[in-house]
Amino acid sequence: MYNILLADLDLVPLIKKELSFYNVDVVNNKEDFYTLTYKKSYELYIVNFYYLDIIEELKDIKNNAPILVIDEYYDINHLKKTFMIADDYIIKPIIPEELKARVSYQFRKLYNLTKDVIKYGTMYFHIKFKQLYNNNKKIKLSPNEIKLIEYFLCRMDKPISKEVILEFLETSSGGALRVYISKLKKLGFNITYDRTNFAYTLHSKA
Fold it and tell me: What average pLDDT is seen over the chain?
């Protein structure tokens, strides 16, 4: 599951409602922002323009997670500063559907920036051609198995909730998901299930 760091208290109710499928941490001051940033890895930052100086520091340490900046009102100078270091700029009041669309776009962009080939043990997956190979031999997979293994490989060692996976696969069948997981495990993918958090993890060590 993606981790989001939110630094704008006005948006907490909206984010919690509209982005409930993500792990969202909230900070209300710069000190807490620093603390969480260095303790935890985030795939997206949603921050008020007030935090722009910290965002600059994130880029200096080569943190490539997308950054969505929220502003209280439209300001051309703020806009120019934002796009020098961040990825998107939104002004209040926030329209829920617009926020969801922009967040979704940033995650798709992050996902597409992943290198073309991902290796896993003796296997490798070619993202562009959606093909899995083992010892240079093609492995036949169903469309959903291909989507699932690509999703896992781009999030190795990160727990992903069952609910999020089902939403990604656009299915409600937990039985079908178990069949897909079983097939991938037989191929050699080290996938575990945490019954406490209802989450699957693909471990980087095969």
Answer: 87
Phi, psi of 189 (to 5 degrees): -85, 125
Q: What pTM was computed for the model? A: 0.56
Question: In which residue are the tokens 């997308």 written?
Answer: 66
> Quick check: bond before 96 cis, omega within 30?
no
pLDDT at 111 over 60: no
Q: How confident is the model at residue 190 (pLDDT cuts 50, 70, 90)?
A: very high
Check residue 130 and give its pLDDT.
87
Answer positive or negative: Cα dihedral of 86, 87, 89, 90.
negative
Per-residue CA distances from 197 to 67, 96, 161, 176, 194 (Å): 28, 28, 7, 20, 6
| 3-class DSSP assignment, residue 143 | helix
One-letter amino acid at 202 equals: L
Among 49, 29, 37, 31, which Cα is nearest to 5's?
A: 37
Residue 161 has which token pair?
Answer: 């909730």
Residue 91 tokens, joined: 């002004």
Helices (H) and strands (E) in the chain — how many of each? 8, 12
Angstrom distance (rounded) from CA 27 to CA 110: 23
Closest CA to 187 of 142, 144, 116, 134: 134
State the CB neighbour count (10 A cutoff) for residue 44: 21
**DSSP 8-state secondary structure symbol assigned to residue 40:** S
The mean pLDDT of 37-51, rounded to a whole number, is: 88
* CB-based contact 124:117 (threshold 8 Å): yes
